[in-house]
Specification:
heterodimer, A: mainly alpha, 4-stranded mixed sheet, 4 strands, 65% helix, elongated, B: alpha/beta, Rossmann fold, 10 helices
Chain lengths: 394, 310
């Protein structure tokens, strides 16, 4: 009971230290402003992309080609005699493009290679195919039949691996990435910052290293989860606005929200973040000087675990995906992602979850032990071997 | 003033601690009784902080054992609410309001939040900082920050307070204020165990002493006892006209030790059996003395003598 009361005290302290509603609100406002600028800025930047591109051809160009090009471009015919001047002037008139068509090839003149050139090349390929087919005597209907894809009628038993589910699984991974970044920042401040402020000894004279460590882990996790939930809700609202702007019903976002997946995701995310925080806390415990310590880079370790989970979307049934969804340091993200896009038995869910809970239980104990021995080494940052030796003695 | 019953509240039996090959604390024993202001005295690196950390179970002794007898819990380390601790390496949350930090530190020691807030405000009122309770600690002067750190360690009104180097970094005025604070909380019922290296300050506040050097006991007993045992000596400080030879003084009757302060100044310690009359009689026979002062040894001098003997 006393342990619980102390852990709650430390947890709520850490939460109140780092979760600042005012800062969260400010962050949301900044995010909204930036998103709005990007959205409207992007629309403005690509506003001329719908306009037909203007290209020039020589006035002796085959009529079939000019008719074909006319449906895609604003065509400008120039006399053959002006060709040299046109090409010579490309340095000044950089938007101009000149197409020369011959029986066996095309020549494109432009100031530089751009995406417009690729677009023209794609159309020329299409035109080339059509003209070659006509040469061998195919009618337009026959041509359409030849070019059309194979008529395959798909019939699946499992139909829940749609693109929308993949989007949802990416969303899970994205939220977890955010949790890692938040935990990294907060845990660093909470532990190394406290050591630098020389508060640690006073605290551990009042509570056990385990209470201290558990309070930090729970407090920072709570902070991270609170921010995650806020941004998850905001993302949904943002998605609804996006649909609205696109002229689609805002309720379209609901097609992406698959409730059972979310119900599975939440406990996995909670225990996963707790586990990563235990690792981060253990690493932070042996860092004395965050600016100079070579161990600081280890704090990015959980990031690797989340990034590895993205591999699940490539083939959720592969051996690697199954391993990632069971391995306790990656299962928090990988298992809910797999569950969203493929068939996973409930026994696998339960097994993976229990394994992760056990890992967290022992990692938090290890973190407290590392912390306990690390505070005894004063005056310099402890090495891994010193921590290992002292941990064995403790 | 509390009734100072002779109840032993802390007993350390033959405790030792080594770090790698360095014996930081070497087989020391002592007992603190309820109501004591017990001072651990010694130079830097003597083993004071290591001893205090062992008492609080922050580190474990290699050998020996520690018995507590607070709040009816014999042998076990008492709950945090019964103990206050001001570590040598001390700090507070600089970017958090002072009152909030104080309340947090008191609540992790088991105090109710409302009581902690009330007690913190009372202390801040006493320190003249009541109007700054909601400010961040970093805006206070260093002296005021140290006062807040002291308050943080005793706010929950512990039965026993361990203060590691409470006078460290304080100016003389604040040192006197801290002496008053320590006496006051002791009078309110808190037994104090403090460590220090400023002997003159300890003389003003402690009733018992443990002198420690290189991890070993040099003296363990009452403050009055140390003066009775070692303070009856006579210390003579001489100013000479020309550089002197130490053997000139070492051969005089009753001389315990001669310290060369510089080429023209000597500090001579006479044993307790010597009388001032005989001392002066002998010294008048020596040429070249231009000034003589005498005094009884203070704690600092007693400590130096004991270390020398050790």
């Amino acid at each position: 009971m006393k342990y619980l009361k102390q852990v709650i005290t430390v947890t709520s302290w850490e939460f109140s230290r780092f979760f600042k509603p005012k800062n969260e609100a400010l962050g949301i406002v900044i995010m909204l402003v930036v998103s709005t600028v990007f959205f409207f800025g992007g629309r403005y930047a690509f506003s001329d992309s719908d306009k037909k591109l203007e290209i020039s051809v020589l006035n002796n160009t085959d009529v079939t080609l000019t008719e074909f090009l006319n449906s895609h471009y604003v065509l400008n015919e120039i006399p053959i005699d002006d060709k040299a001047n046109f090409i010579g002037d490309l340095g000044n008139e950089r938007d101009r493009v000149l197409l020369e068509a011959y029986s066996d090839n095309f020549i494109l003149h432009a100031y530089k290679n751009t995406s417009d050139i690729n677009k023209i090349k794609a159309h020329l390929t299409e035109y080339h195919k059509q003209s070659e087919m006509q040469k061998i005597g195919l009618s337009p209907d026959e041509l359409t039949t030849v070019l059309s894809p194979a008529p395959v009628i798909e019939s699946f038993v499992y139909t829940d691996n749609s693109g929308k589910r993949v989007v949802l699984s990416y969303f899970f991974a994205g939220i977890m990435l955010m949790a890692v970044f938040l935990s990294f920042a907060y845990q660093f401040t909470a532990i190394t910052g406290e050591k630098q402020l020389k508060i640690t000894e006073q605290i551990v004279s009042a509570i056990s290293p385990q209470v201290w460590m558990d309070g930090k882990i729970f407090g920072i996790t709570l902070t991270g989860i609170s921010s995650m939930l806020i941004y998850a809700v905001l993302s949904i609202v943002g998605g609804m606005l996006f649909f609205q702007f696109r002229g689609l019903p805002a309720s379209g976002i609901l097609d992406y929200i698959y409730l059972p997946s979310i119900v599975i995701y939440l406990p996995f995310a909670l225990v996963g973040i707790l586990t990563w925080n235990a690792i981060l806390a253990a690493i932070a415990s042996i860092i004395t000087e965050p600016n100079n310590s070579g161990k600081s880079s280890l704090m990015m370790l959980p990031l690797v675990f989340v990034i590895a989970s993205f591999l699940v979307t490539r083939d959720p049934d592969s051996g690697l995906s199954i391993f990632l969804s069971w391995f306790p340091l990656t299962s928090a993200t990988s298992m809910p992602m797999r569950w969203a896009i493929t068939e996973v038995g409930y026994w696998q869910l339960a097994g993976s979850f229990i394994l992760m809970v056990l890992t967290f239980y022992f990692l938090r104990k290890l973190a407290a032990k590392i912390f306990r021995v690390s505070i005894l080494i004063t005056g310099k940052e402890p090495t891994f071997s010193e921590v290992y030796k002292l941990s064995k003695q403790a | 003033m509390i009734d100072k019953m002779q109840k032993t509240v802390l007993k350390a039996n033959s405790i030792s601690k080594a770090f790698l090959n360095v014996k930081a604390v070497n087989n020391i024993s002592f007992a603190v009784e309820q109501g004591d202001i017990y001072a651990f005295l010694g130079p830097n690196g003597a083993g004071k902080t290591t001893t205090l950390r062992m008492l609080l179970d922050i580190i474990k002794p290699d050998s020996g054992h520690i018995e507590w007898n607070l709040n009816g819990k014999q042998n076990l380390l008492p709950d945090a609410e019964h103990i206050g601790y001001l570590p040598e390496e001390r700090g507070l949350y600089l970017d958090i309001p002072i009152l909030k930090s104080l309340v947090y530190l008191a609540t992790i020691r088991g105090m109710e939040k409302t009581h902690a807030k009330k007690a913190a405000l009372e202390w801040m009122e006493r320190l003249g900082l009541a109007d700054r309770a909601k400010e961040k600690l970093q805006v206070l002067s260093k002296g005021n920050q140290q006062k807040i750190q002291f308050v943080a360690s005793i706010l929950h009104k512990p039965e026993f307070a361990i203060l590691d180097e409470p006078f460290s970094g304080l100016d003389p005025l604040n040192q006197e204020i801290f002496i008053d604070f320590i006496k006051e909380i002791n009078n309110q019922g808190t037994t104090i165990l403090l460590s220090a290296h400023q002997m003159s300050l300890v003389e003003k506040v402690a009733n018992k002493l443990f002198l420690i050097n290189n991890g070993k006991e040099v003296y363990n007993g009452s403050l009055s006892g140390i003066y009775q045992s070692f303070g009856e000596k006579i210390i003579i400080e001489l100013q000479l006209e020309s550089p002197f030879n130490e053997t000139t003084f070492q051969n005089l009757k009753g001389v315990d030790s001669v310290i060369r302060v510089d080429d023209f100044r000597a500090k001579i310690t006479y044993g307790p059996q010597s009388s001032m009359k005989n001392v002066l009689h002998d010294l008048t026979k020596i040429d070249g003395i231009c000034d003589i002062t005498s005094h009884k040894p203070d704690l600092h001098e007693i400590f130096l003598q004991l270390v020398k003997k050790q």
